[in-house]
Each structure stands twice: as C-alpha cells, then as structure tokens.
Amino acid sequence: MKKAIHLRRLRVKIGGRVQGVGFRPAVYRLARRFNLTGFARNTSSGVTIEIQGLPVTLDNFIAILRTNSPRQAIIESLAVEKIKKNNGEKSFSIIKSKHSGDLRAGMPPDLAICALCRRELFDPVNRRFQYPFINCTDCGPRFTIIKSLPYDRARTSMASFKLCPDCRAEFREPSDRRFEAQPNACHVCGPQVRLVGANFKKIAGDPLAIAVKILKAGKILAVKGVGGYHLCCNALDDGAVRLLRRRKNRPHKSLAVMFASLSEARGHCEISAEEEIELKSVAAPVVVLRKKTKSSLPKNISPDTGDIGVFMPYSPVHCLLLDKISPLVMTSGNKLDEPIAINEDELKNILGMIADAALTHDRQILRRCDDSVLKLSGKSPIILRRSRGFVPASIRLPVSAPPILACGAELKNTVCVTRGDRAFISAHIGDLDDFRNYRFFRESVRDFVNLLEIKPETVAYDMHPDYMSTRFALGVQGVRREAVQHHHAHIASCIAENEIPGQVIGLALDGTGYGEDGTIWGGEILIADLVSYKRAGHFKQYPLPGGEAAILNPDRMALSVLAAEFGADARKMINKFLPSIRNTEAGALMEMAAHKIHSPLTSSAGRLFDAISALLGFSGEITYEGRAAVRLQANADRSAGKNYRYDIKEENGVLVISFTPAIMEIIDALEHNLPRDYIAGVFHNTVAAALSAVCGMIRERVGLNKVALSGGVFQNDLLAHKLILRLKKNRFAVYTNQLVPPNDGGISFGQAAVAAERSITRRS
Ligand code: ZN
Ligand code: ZN
Ligand code: FE
User: Fold this and answer.
1) Closest ligand, as measured to the CA of 605
2) Any idea which ligand is nearest the CA of 744?
C-alpha cells in the first residue's frame, strides 16, 4: 500500500503593521525556501496566508515568521487555524488583494537605509553603485513622499519618475527585495542630485565631490535629506562650527553630529548597549550621548553640556557624503525657530544667508519632518522630539472613540488625530508664536485629517486662552469642544501610553501651563485618571516679575524668590549673587513682585530650577528655552549624596511643597563658598526627596500607589533618575513617557486621550 503524505493546510491571519513593509515578499521567499504551497494576500485588517505542507515544516515556517519578519513589520496578532487541503496548487504565490487594505493602522514612517542597500551603494559592480536614492521594501522614504493613501507609487512624489526596464522587473518580481518597493529607482530612471551655489546656479562637476570640497574648506552646506534640508559643516572644524552658529543666530544650543559609523562615534562618545540599539534603529534618531573627555570635537558643539546629540547616516545621500568627510554637524535647515525648509522656494531663506552651497535633488519632499531626538535614562528612553522615523506610526489609546483632533500646546507643538483606538501624532511643528510655524500647524491639521480620512467630531485644546492652538480650536465649527488642562494632558499622556487603569498620582512638572484658577501652574501634583483630575498639591508659588519676561531672565526669577523669602534682607543677597541686576532695577522689581504688579503667581517647577540656576551663576543668557535648567543639570555633581530640607504644608486641602528651608541652606552654602556643582547636585536630590515624600502623604490619604511622571522638567534625566529610585524604594509603581515626549510635544496625545475617554464615559 502506498504511504499517504500527511500534508496539512493552515490559514494564518496576521494583524499589525504588515502592509507596505515587504511582508508578503518575505512570506513568499520563506514559503518557497520550504517548498510550501499556498498564497499570501493583503486584507482590510492585515495579511492572510494560506500555507500547505508537512506539519513539521509548517511549524518551522510559523516560528520563523514570528521571529524573522521584515524589520519594518510589527506583528500585533497572529492567528492560525487548520483548514481543508487544496490539491490544485503547484507553488506559493502572492495574490492581488480584493479590497484595498486599511493601511492607516500601520502606515510606515520613513525608514533608514538598510544594510543590504548600503552594501550595494558601495559595491562598484552593482548597478546602483553610489546611487544616492537606492532603497528597497525594507528602507527608504515613506511618510515624506506620500501624497495620499493607499501607498502606491502613483500617489507619491516618485510618480514623475518612470521605472526603467530593470527597475520595473525588480518591482514586479515577488522574490525580489524591491518587489513593490514604491520609491524604487536607479541611476537610469530615478532622481538625481545637483549642487547649487549661493546664487542658486548649478555648479558643474561631480556634485558630491565638490560638496565634500566645500565642507573641507570650512564652509556651510545645505543638504536635502528625507524630511527637509540640513545645514552641515565639518564637525571637527571649530571655525566652521562658529560660522554656522553665527549665521544661524544660534549661539549656544547643542548641535547634532552625524558620524560615518558607530565605531567612529565611539571614539568620541560613551555608547551603551541600549543607546547602540537606538542609533542603529530604523528611525535613526539623534541620540544624546555622553562625550568622552578625549574627544577632539570642539567644545562649541555643545557648550552648555558634556553631551553630544549623535546620529547615523540614514539616507544614501548621507552615506555617500559621510564616507568622504566625517563627522559632520547636521542641524535643521531653517532660520532660528522656523519650520525646516523642504523645497527650493524655502531654500531661499537659508541658501546665501546661512549656507554657501546646497546639495539638492529632484525628489520632492511632500511633508516636513525634522529629525527625532531621544536620550536614555538607564535603559528607558526619554523622547525629546518624536518626528522623522516615528511619524505617522500610531499609538494605541485605551478606548476606541469617535474621531478627535487634538491641537496641542503652544511650544514644541504637535497635533494628534484619532481614528478608533489609534492616535496619530504629527511631526514636530515648533513654537506657534512664529506665524510660519502657525501656518505649518494649519497645514499639518489639514494634512492629517485628509490622510486619515476622518471628520473630527471632537476638537481638544489647551485651556490657555492665548495659545494659537486654542484660538484655532475655538474657530472650528460643528464639533464638540473639549478643553483639557495642560498638566492633566501631560499626566494623561503617561496614563494612556502605559494603559494604566484607574487613578494615579501624577507629578506634572514643567515651565508653564494655564491653571484653572487663572494662575500659572507648573509644579503640580494631581490625582488623575483620563477623565478628570484633582489638584492634590503644588510647589509654593512665587511672583513672576514682569510676567513672561522673567522666563527670559532667570536672574529676575531668583530675585523674586529671594524677595519672597527674605523680605528687605534680600537686597544684600541680590547684590552679591545676582550681579546682572543693577541696584535701581532690583528695587523696582522687588516693588513689582511685592505689590503683584505685572507679576502673576506661579507654582512652576521650571522657574524654580531657573531661579536656583541663576543663584548658582549657571543660567547665562537665555538663547533657547530651558537653557538655565539645562546648565543647572549639566553642572550638577551627580554623586552628591545628601539633600536640603523642604517643607510640605496643607493649605485649604492642598499640599504645598515649599523649598524655603532649602533656599536658606543654599544661600548659606554659597556664603561658605561650597562648590556650586555640589549645591546643584544636592538641590536635585532635594526636589526628588520632596516629591517622593508628597507621594507618600497622598498614598496614606487615598491609598494610591501608582505614580505617573510627565512634563518638560522630566527631560532632566538626573532628576528623573533620582526621583524614580526614591519612589521605587518606597514601593511605588512608577510610570514615565516612553512613546511620546514628556515635554509639550506630548500634549496633543494627552488631550486626545482625555477627549476619547470622556466621550466614552459620556455615552455610558
Ligand atoms: Zn534597503
Ligand atoms: Zn531604474
Ligand atoms: Fe508643559
């Protein structure tokens, strides 16, 4: 009797980000390797595979599928069922889908160049040798070249480039790495680079070779990348870095540095295993690293800190450039605080003014997308800017709700649009007080709403009446409006991304946020869930003499604190420790603060850090937001052990954290000439100790054990680290932002989470 072959057939349904990322071709190659038959196709919810073969082979196939899917794929669900055998198939194939898939749930961001393309780029016998736009299904631009969905070449800025026969063959061959790679291109048929001088005239010769010469001569080059232009210069040339700073009017803020390779970066910076993973990740963000003392990078790249923002070449253009000259300073191609330039028209604002020449190309950038920035605190990331490489990947909300548009805050603005339980956060937009950024904000809202094909039913916004984002929200007609208090939004962002059920103790520390009582909040202890919050405590309030102006002048904030704590005795200290404030000015400012003239009260933690930074002489001129606090942290002695005293008192049912005793001790320490770095370190410990103590008091009262940290102050990883250690030691469960920034870039997501939860609660 002939032995029957025990074939089995399975249907595998896969959900997640599995379309437009080379998933089906990977399945195809795998199935062919194992001699399995069947098919794969896109469905409205992901990819469905039917696969037939020997049971043991099928098991292997599924195991490999789970673990070795394409690097861009994110498998969120994988369901396997046994079905009836099919005896007609001879091989495995990819079937055209009946429905156009709902790509939105898994729309991929721009992807850094993959290892295979990189190898081909430098392979002299490859037909794409040194082709600056090489890509495959595993890498290349996505979000920045898509006009509309679904993601098809005809709807991208590659539409104007007609595939040559060789590229077309790759595009159509399922076993090829470039099967349906929409931006596929080569020397023959694809985009080309071009070098133009300050007068916009084309410079003859090899564009890359001349660009390298320009950089080597210490000049500034604009380079068109993936999400916009960069301004570049030789990072080892102190003169070039100075020139760039002067022309960009950016005297102090750190500049990012791109290295040709990880090993080269390691020569200048400490890189942990976790940091290495981030640097090599497909998002290729700027990762803030500790600079080695032996590094030959000029101090001027990050004069305020011992850290360097480092990233790897993520587009082939970068690879080719960095291969000839590395490291390069690479900073956003814009004038200070404007949106990054993406086209020739916007290039006019920087070329000739800041850049001496521009390495540009004819593949249009359709969406502005700045580089993302993150740093690691121990093993967990702190995202400082979530943009290129992350956008438009969605973040899951705890509930599914009717569509929401959340307008974000005023500074570091992003917007967020929801579809079901998915939140899509825009690229970094910037500070809306600049009209060009506000225009970009409006474009981004329109673009996201169109791209996701939603009609917002709810518009969420900050309570601050003067934010441009608030004014915009109030102008949208025919929607429900949902005002969300600023610090509630911060804490909600943390609750939502960590999917924390129920209430938490929320520590929301930042520079400024509009409080419901009309004062400026910023050192807030909330008891919150996604629907509502109660202000359980806050930092002691001080007058902000001259209002917002005090933000630009930390010495004034320090004066205000001294005047409040020491009354008339403050005068001597002001003279001694705040030499920038003239005697007459001191009197006037003290008068203003005392009589509350143009001096709103604030409980801001950011302003307290400003004041201490000023007292210790660290703050300097405020040429970028948060500089005083950045310098206080950078100077702090991390090994300082003790902490100063503080006071927590209940006033009208609210706990008020006062650092008055600490300020007395700091003045005393200054009088005794103790090292300022040490004082800064002890101050960090003190804030951590006070916050941990206040959490303990709240736990005793209401029994909550979960603490959520958010707000721009938590970009300070020294404070975050010290606080988390204390809270964990006190057996609190601690949650931080890991998917969205703790700064105001995360506000839109928090607003969306609150609006979503409220709309569900209202319904039930
Ligand atoms: Zn590739
Ligand atoms: Zn071609
Ligand atoms: Fe904030």
Assistant:
1) 3
2) 3
